[in-house]
Amino acid sequence: MSExxxxxxxxxxxxxxxxxxxxxxxxxxxxxxxxxxFFGFLGANGAGKTTTIKTLVTLLSATGGEISINxxxxxxxxxxxxxxxxxxxQETAIDTDLTARENIQFACEAYGVSGDARAERIDELLxxxxxxxxxxxxxxxxxxxMKKRLDAATALVHEPPLVFLDEPTTGLDPKARNRLWxxxxxINEQGTTxxxxxxxxxxxxxxxxxxxxxxxxxxxxxxxxxxxxxxVGGQRLDIDVDAADPEPAVAVARExxxxxxxxxxxxxxxxxxxxxARERGTDLxxxxxxxxxxxTGFNIRAPxxxxxxxxxxxxxxxxxxxxAGEPASAGATDAEGxx
Amino acid sequence: xxxxxxxANDSFAWDVWVNFKRWTLKAVRNPFVLVVSLAQPIIFLVLxxxxxxxxxxxxxxxxxxxxxSYETYLVPAIAIQVSLAAAVTSGIGLVEDIEEGSFEKxxxxxxxxxxxxxxxxxxxxxxxxxxIAIILGLGTLLGAEISGGVAGGLAIVGIGVLFxxxxxxxxxxxxxxxxxxxxxxIASNVLQFPLLFLSTGFLPLEALPDWVQAVATVNPVTYGIxxxxxxxxxxxxxxxxxxxxxxxxxxxLVPALVVLAVLDLVLGGIAVYLIGRASxxxxx
Lengths: 339, 284
Prior knowledge:
The complex is a heterodimer of chains A (339) and B (284).
Chain A: E1 8-18, E2 24-34, E3 38-42, H1 49-56, E4 64-69, E5 72-73, H2 78-84, E6 85-88, H3 100-110, H4 115-128, H5 144-155, E7 162-166, H6 174-189, E8 193-198, H7 201-207, E9 210-215, E10 218-223, H8 225-232, E11 235-241, H9 247-257, E12 261-265, E13 269-274, H10 277-290, E14 295-301, H11 305-314, H12 317-320
Parallel strand pairs in A: 3-8, 3-9, 6-7, 7-8
Antiparallel strand pairs in A: 1-2, 1-4, 4-5, 9-10, 11-13, 11-14, 12-13
Chain B: H1 12-29, H2 31-60, H3 70-100, H4 102-107, H5 113-141, H6 149-178, H7 181-197, H8 210-218, H9 220-233, H10 250-279
Helix pairs in contact in B: 1-5, 2-3, 2-5, 3-5, 3-6, 3-7, 3-9, 5-6, 6-7, 6-9, 6-10, 9-10
């Protein structure tokens, strides 16, 4: 593979996609994903996740920027790109007229897996996605989870070094989801680069080495799950109070922490996010009692990606400076870097 | 990891073959579709010969020449009806692939795109040929006579296949424009009956009212049926364009096949263009 000079599975710079109707779906996305990474691409519906992924796999042409996939330029050698990527679309795409085995067989043939290796490869994949016992049944009787797993198998027939997964677990029950996660982790351990889009932050947290958050077609934060969480700043303390109006409690907390914490009213009371939330939490509860506010419950936890997500998507001002915090040292709009 | 940048089978012919196999397998998996698309023409064949046979025989033999039965007269029309009905499924298959996501999946594969569609079309043409052959066999059992025997039968199959291409093109145009299965089925079906009845399919041109004659003259179905019928009867049957430069059935076949070929090229070309646009990676 002389063409592959970079060690980046994905090297995309300044990608812009503007649809014919003027919609700017992607506005200057930079992505550099090293080989072997499990990369997560997060964003709300309509943020530009699917448009980006379709552009990376040659289904759409970028209206601006440069994209190199596994060392191949998407405009100059789209077929080489197609040969070296696996793509699992958001909507399950299998042929329900065909059996599980025939679906994988067709994919093998489409990707030119040689005749000798084909039967073995099909058996291997059927085992991997645990459909060996139903391999000769047509797929129209399969459950949603089985179809997804079959779809995943067909995306892997040619052992692509890079696999794109567009919301692969949407609509699956937790058990089926966990099973798919296992497969993804397994192929990632074997060296496959994975590019995952998801709305489930738990999924990204558990699977991904590194994440980027996209909003309105722009990447607004990049880093490992821990880096992103630490940007939210410290621990999160939720306190439930027995009062219709949480404002007095919020006032007490604000006075208690001063400027060291972010304090906001919640449905049941208030939420405190602070580095010292764990250490000083008990003292705050005492302060609340002294102020005659009855505390009915409290919970202290580390921030989750949900907090990151909410902090970023709620807070416009923190984005426009392009500064997503310390750990993402390369800048908020640049997903460059290793692990 | 294997060297994934190279395909073991990277030829155009291979892609045609792989897709031909897929669509043939799908057709075999859905014998119901095969049977249903034959059912209506068979019902027509039986009902028309039984109900109208008596009255129609007079009309078709008015021109003189050796007397022919209505069965013999009708079978070429039914063959073309089969061709129409079967061609519709081409667009339906495309819409199904678009709706099921298989279309996109194929576009993201390294297969040659024209190979993909050539393979699909070849499978469909083979099925159309088989269905016409079944109708010819059935017609013969009912008493129809093919003047050229087996060779004549094969020629009619060939004409049916040539005829089907323009309607296949049309159904794909509807499919890729609407991207909706129901619309494709309805639009194609709505077209079928007027096309069939406003042609020389069931009665000779001169037995039809003036306005129907006018429509029949520009109706592609007339050219398909006239060509098939010329082979069936072994004589010049074309009544919409008078051609006398050739001899015998060639006075029908040459103009009819030229008209059909031009139509195939135009509609097939538009379909190929639209499918190409739908599958090209441009953000349109």
